[in-house]
Amino acid sequence: MTDIKHLFTYGLAFGNSWLYGLVILASAIYGLRVIKHKDTGATGLRLLSGIGFLATDAGIFLGGIWPSYFTLVAILILPAPFVFAFAAVRPPAVWKRAKLRMYLNLCVVASGLMWVAQLLWELRASRVCALLRHLTGSAMLNDLFNTTRGFTAVLIACVGLLTIFPWQPILLRRPTSRESFRPVLLLTLSSLLQVTFILLVGGNVLTLDYSVRFAALGLPLCILALVLAGRRKQEPDLPRGTVTCVILSLVMWMFLITVH
After folding, report:
1. What pLDDT score was predicted for residue 191?
2. 162 and 102 share one domain
3. Domain closes at, from 125, 157, 184
4. pTM for the full predicted model
5. Pair (181, 91) in one structural domain
6. Are 131 and 107 in contact (CB under 8 A)?
7. Range of 138's domain?
8. Residues 98 and 11 in one domain
């Protein structure tokens, strides 16, 4: 059973790599279009509903292949395809309801993040790193992927970059309201949890199995930060790149959860 699972996994990674790109691209297109849904006609809303239907179906498929953390997410987004199918027939009945629209948006985001996390896991599980080392012959690349400290440093650098970027206008003392500062603060707290976990694992104090416990605290912070940043996206005082950095931080959490 394990061999079949691994065979299927590598088949998805290399034989059907287009599927990853298609789902991630569909989620990205949905995210870009949903921002301007008020200016979209009935035909555009039907097309948007079709994209959402495909994206959430893909998320349910990924969560239903075998039991995993994705299965829990798939259960939560299970009603979304049916709602999107109804929205394709009667767009105003769905898109005029703010809470229902927010649920659908979160479902598409969750589905896209699941496939991004799966893609990262596949790349890590594959021999891409070994191939790069063979082609480049770089000693520094070997050290980076062969030593725990090197990999820990890379992860911390990624988390640090995602955290510092939204702080730029605040550090430069540009006027920022309390409401616009809150998502940045929540992102920072989530990043501190990520760095703490990475350091503890790198120091062999904890194992990767503890990632779920850290994520139980960090993921709600990220989700709340995304909601607050989304509400303030049209405000000029919201630090630039906050929404993008929060989404990438969610991807980092998904990577830390699935990496073990």
Report:
1. 92
2. no
3. 125
4. 0.48
5. no
6. no
7. 131-258
8. yes
pLDDT tens per residue, range 129-181: 555 445 554 444 444 444 455 567 777 888 888 888 888 777 777 888 888 88
Whether residue 152 is found in the same domain as residue 217: yes
With beta carbons less than 8 A apart as the criterion, state whether 239 and 168 touch. yes
- 107 shares a domain with 38: yes
Same domain for 25 and 144: no
The residue assigned the tokens 């959430």 is 56
pLDDT tens per residue, range 80-121 = 999 988 888 888 888 888 788 888 888 888 888 888 777 766
